[in-house]
C-alpha cells in the first residue's frame, strides 16, 4: 500500500532537534534530500514511538513501506493499513495512550498558529459546516487521501472547481482530465490542443474551464457539454504558459506567453480586450476583490492594477526564475517560488515579510493551506514542504516520484491536490 498516515507531532523539542539536525546536515553536505535516509530516527524522542508499529521507524521499514525516499524531518510516521482517512483517526486514537494528548494538541496549535494567542482563531476555521468532526481535538493531519495516475504523461497543472467537487488537471497528455471528488471517477476532455497543456482554471461558480497550451492557444470548455471546446482564443505568438479567471468579473480571462505578453480576454464576446507586457511564467488574480494581477517573469514578480493597468509593485529578490505564485485566500499575501527560495509579500506594503530557502530541494509550486492561513504548502522535487511562515518552521512530506509541478486547494473541502511529473495527481487532507 502506498497509503501513509502522517501524524504531525510537532512538539518543540522535536522541532528544535530537527533544526539542529538540518544545520548539521547542511554543513555536512549541500546536496539534496536523497541521502538523508534515517535521520528521522534520530529526531523523535523514543518515548513517542508507538509499540504497535516499530518497524516503520527504521529505514528498512520505510523501504518496505513504498515510495519513501527519506524520512521526513519533524514527522512521526506510521505505516497505515491502507484505508486512508478512516485509519487516520484510528491511528490517532491508538496514539493517545502514548503521550500527553493535551500537550500534543497545544504543540500542534503552537506550530500552526501565529502566536499562542491566535490558536483559537485558527481552529475556528476548521469548524466549518463541511467538517462534521473537526480534527482540532485530534491534532493536525496531512495524509494522502487518493491518487490518480495517467498512463505515461507528466501532469503540470490542476485546479478545483469552486464547489470543490471536481479537480481538473492536465499536462503532457494534451487533454484535460476531470476527477470527480465524490465518486473518484475520471473523465477526459477531448484532445484538441496540439501541444502540452500548461494551465487549467475553472471559471468561478461555473461549469466552464479554460486551458492554455504550448500550441499558442487558450481553449474554453463547458464540462456539462464536453464533446468539444466552446471557443479557441488565438493571438498569442508564443507558447501560452498560464491563465486565470477574474474572481468577480468572471467573464474576464487573462493569459500570458513565453514572450512576456499578457492578454485580457472577454469570455462572453470571445474578444481580446487588452495586451500588456510583464508575465512569462504564471499569472494569478488577487482573490475576492480581483484588484490586482500578479505576474511572474524571470526573477521578478509584477503586481498590476487590473482597473488602471498600471504596475503597482515590482517585487525583486529572487536570484533565479520565479516558477509560480499563489495568493492567500484573503488576497493580502502573495507567495512566489523559485527553485532555491520562497518569498511571501504583503500586498499592502509591497515588502517581503517572510522567506524560506529550499536547502537543496528544488521548489516549484505553492498553495496556502485551505484551513491554516499561516501554512504554505510548497511543492518541490518528490516532497512537499509544509512551512509555517510565521514561525518559520517546516516539515517535509514525501509525496511523489518526480517534480511537484502544481498544487491546488479547495476551501470548501479542505483538500489539497498535488500534480507531478511522476504522472500522478494526489489528494491530501
Ligand atoms: C454548459 O452546458 C450546459 C448543458 O448543455 C448548458 O445548460 C449551459 O448553459 C452551458 N453553460 C455555458 C456557460 O455555456
Ligand atoms: C509572430 O512570430 C512570427 C515569427 O515567429 C513573426 O514573423 C510575426 O511578426 C510575429 N507576430 C507578432 C504579432 O508579433
Ligand atoms: C481555480 O481557478 C479559479 C479561476 O481561475 C480561481 O479563482 C480559483 O481560486 C482556483 N481554485 C483554487 C482552489 O485555487
Ligand atoms: C460564487 O458563489 C459564492 C457562494 O454562493 C458567492 O459568495 C460568490 O460571490 C460567487 N462569486 C461570483 C464571482 O459570482
Ligand atoms: C528561517 O529558518 C531558516 C532555517 O531554519 C533560517 O536559515 C532562516 O534564517 C530563518 N529565517 C528567519 C527570517 O528567521
Automatic annotation (TrEMBL):
At which residues are the WD repeats?
190-223, 233-275, 315-355, 397-429
Q: Which residue windows does the record flag with biased composition (Low complexity)?
A: 45-59
Q: A Pfam family name for this chain? A: WD40
Gene Ontology MF terms: transcription corepressor activity
| Keyword annotations of the record | Repeat, WD repeat
- On the tree of life, the source organism's domain of life is Eukaryota
Q: Where is the composition biased (Polar residues)?
A: 28-44
Q: Does the keyword Repeat apply?
A: yes
Annotated stretches, region: Disordered: 19-62
Protein name per the record? Uncharacterized protein
**What is the source species?**
Aegilops tauschii subsp. strangulata (Goatgrass)
Amino acid at each position: 500500500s502506498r497509503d501513509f498516515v502522517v501524524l504531525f507531532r510537532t512538539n518543540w523539542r522535536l522541532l528544535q532537534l530537527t533544526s539542529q539536525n538540518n544545520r548539521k546536515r547542511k554543513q555536512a553536505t549541500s546536496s539534496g534530500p536523497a541521502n538523508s535516509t534515517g535521520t528521522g530516527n534520530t529526531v523523535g524522542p523514543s518515548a513517542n514511538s508507538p509499540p504497535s508499529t516499530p518497524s516503520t521507524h527504521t529505514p528498512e521499514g520505510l523501504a518496505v513501506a513504498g515510495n519513501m525516499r527519506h524520512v521526513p524531518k519533524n514527522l512521526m510516521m506510521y505505516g497505515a493499513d491502507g484505508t486512508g482517512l478512516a485509519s487516520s483517526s484510528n491511528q490517532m486514537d491508538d496514539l493517545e495512550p502514548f503521550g500527553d494528548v493535551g500537550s500534543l494538541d497545544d504543540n500542534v496549535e503552537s506550530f500552526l498558529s501565529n502566536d499562542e494567542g491566535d490558536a483559537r482563531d485558527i481552529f475556528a476555521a476548521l469548524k466549518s459546516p463541511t467538517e462534521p468532526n473537526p480534527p482540532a481535538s485530534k491534532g493536525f493531519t496531512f495524509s494522502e487521501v487518493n491518487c490518480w495516475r495517467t498512463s505515461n504523461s507528466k501532469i503540470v497543472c490542476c485546479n478545483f472547481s469552486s464547489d470543490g467537487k471536481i479537480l481538473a488537471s492536465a499536462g503532457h497528455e494534451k487533454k484535460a482530465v476531470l476527477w470527480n471528488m465524490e465518486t473518484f471517477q475520471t473523465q477526459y476532455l477531448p484532445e484538441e490542443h496540439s501541444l502540452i497543456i500548461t494551465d487549467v482554471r475553472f471559471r468561478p461558480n461555473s461549469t466552464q474551464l479554460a486551458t492554455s497550451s504550448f500550441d499558442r492557444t487558450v481553449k474554453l470548455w463547458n464540462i456539462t457539454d464536453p464533446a468539444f471546446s466552446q471557443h479557441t482564443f488565438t493571438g498569442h505568438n508564443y507558447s501560452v504558459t498560464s491563465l486565470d479567471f477574474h474572481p468577480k468579473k468572471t467573464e474576464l480571462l487573462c493569459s500570458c506567453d513565453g514572450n512576456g505578453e499578457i492578454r485580457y480576454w472577454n469570455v462572453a464576446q470571445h474578444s481580446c480586450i487588452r495586451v500588456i507586457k510583464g508575465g512569462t511564467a504564471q499569472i494569478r488574480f488577487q482573490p475576492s476583490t480581483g484588484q490586482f494581477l500578479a505576474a511572474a517573469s524571470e526573477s521578478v514578480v509584477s503586481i498590476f492594477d487590473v482597473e488602471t493597468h498600471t504596475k503597482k509593485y515590482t517585487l525583486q529578490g529572487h536570484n533565479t526564475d520565479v516558477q509560480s505564485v499563489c495568493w492567500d485566500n484573503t488576497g493580502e499575501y502573495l507567495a512566489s517560488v523559485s527553485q532555491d527560495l520562497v518569498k511571501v509579500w504583503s500586498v499592502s506594503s509591497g515588502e517581503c515579510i517572510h522567506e524560506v530557502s529550499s536547502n537543496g530541494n528544488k521548489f516549484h509550486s505553492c498553495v496556502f493551506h485551505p484551513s491554516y492561513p499561516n501554512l504554505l504548502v510548497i511543492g518541490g522535487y518528490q516532497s512537499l514542504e509544509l512551512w509555517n511562515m510565521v514561525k518559520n518552521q517546516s516539515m517535509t512530506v514525501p509525496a511523489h516520484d518526480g517534480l511537484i509541478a502544481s498544487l491546488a486547494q479547495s476551501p470548501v473541502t479542505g483538500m489539497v491536490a498535488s500534480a507531478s511529473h511522476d504522472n500522478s495527481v494526489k489528494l491530501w487532507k
